[in-house]
Amino acid sequence: MSQGFTGSVSEVFQVWTPTYVNLTVGNGTVVARYLESHGMVDYMFSLTFGSTSSVDGSGVTLTYPVPANSFYVSGAASHGVGYARAAATSHPVFVRDMGVTLEPLVESDSTFTRFATISATVPAVWTTGDTLQFQGRYQTG
After folding, report:
1. What is the per-residue pLDDT for 94?
2. How far apart are CA 29 and CA 57, in angstroms?
3. SS3 sequence, 5-66?
4. Which tens digit of pLDDT belongs to each residue from 76-121?
5. pTM over 0.70
6. Distance CA 118, CA 59 (A)
7. How many CA atoms lie within 13 A of 5 on its CB side?
8. Residues 6 or more apart from 30 whose CB is under 8 A from it?
9. Which of 100, 89, 97, 94 is nearest to 113 (CA)?
């Protein structure tokens, strides 16, 4: 990829190993990658639930691959979108900044007007093969 007058830049996505709250990956499959370039981070996260994966409480969060800029308002800034597929139904996901973590929220009603924290039963009871996927972009510190 050419970057103006600076010549070629080889950009390679890096592996990201988040720390989770209220989520047990168990034998699930996680693909998490990020690319940091010019003060910005592009990231993607995908979890396919295995038989020992579980949501252990309400309010699933995971650590950033690279710390976000401190000017973001915790609980208000949007850092991504995606979907959750649970009980054979897809649900939109919105990812918000929580200071030092990302919190995926899931569409919680049929009118698409509210998002709720993910729990063991929201958007549905999670089972083997269900997925949580999202991607986003944010500015670093």
Report:
1. 92
2. 20
3. HHCECCCCCEECCCCEECEECCCCEEEEEEEEECCEEEEEEEEECCCCCEECCCCCEEECCC
4. 788 899 999 998 999 999 999 998 899 999 987 655 557 889 999 9
5. yes
6. 6
7. 0
8. 45, 46, 47
9. 94
